[in-house]
């Protein structure tokens, strides 16, 4: 088997985000046998999903039946990782995942600048429709592990508890949206993903 770990960053983020880099450093040090893929996603939802799906399909084409896929997603990446889990039947760890992002991101409509890449774009109402269309019901909660901090200043953790109520859950007091001290989790995540 070939283990492939797909890490999906969040809204206005990049592969250079702190958690992505912590995951990469851990894999490089302790599990160099894992193929880690951290795609730079386009800034708009349908384009981001198209890039993610293409990345997964390329991994399937490379490894065929030998592929053992696992996903990690942070914030909006958690929303996308839920879709990956449902469509490709793999396990996923979701870090402060976005729930109903088509409602959440309405507050961010208008001009945007990605702070990691300096890319400028406009978030439009049509993009909320794209997010709504990408939502999938959770039919296999046993494949999901939610890592949630209660003091997330962007997302209401109670919505996460409701959305993923039958999934494995690690709920921590305090913290924030960036997920304080994420470096405690890569080994446990890789173990959960079965990689």
Largest sheet: 6 strands, parallel
Q: Which range does the strand content fall in?
A: 15-25%
Rounded mean pLDDT score: 95
Could you give the distance between the termini?
A: 9 Å
Tally of individual helices: 7
Q: Could you say what the CATH topology is called?
A: Rossmann fold
Helicity, as a percent range: 25-40%
What general outline do the C-alpha atoms trace? globular
Structural class: alpha/beta
Query: Rg, please?
Result: 16 Å
CATH class: Alpha Beta
Major β-sheet strand ordering: 2-1-3-4-7-8
H and E order: EHEHEHEHEEHEHEH
CATH homology-level superfamily: Alpha/Beta hydrolase fold, catalytic domain
- What ranges have pLDDT less than 50 throughout 5 or more consecutive residues? none
- Quaternary: single chain
CATH architecture: 3-Layer(aba) Sandwich
What's the total count of β strands? 8
Quick structural overview:
The chain has 195 residues and is α/β, with parallel strands linked by helices. Helix content is 38%, strand content 22%. The protein has a six-stranded parallel β-sheet, sandwiched between helices.
Which descriptors apply to this entry?
195 residues, alpha/beta, Rossmann fold, 6-stranded parallel sheet, 7 helices, 8 strands, 22% strand
Structure commentary:
The model has no long low-confidence stretch (mean pLDDT 95). The protein has 195 residues and is an alpha/beta fold. The radius of gyration is 16 Å and the shape is globular. It has a single domain, classed as Rossmann fold, CATH 3.40.50.1820. Helix content is 38%, strand content 22%. Strands 2-1-3-4-7-8 form a six-stranded parallel sheet, with helices on both faces. The protein has a two-stranded antiparallel sheet with strand order 5-6.
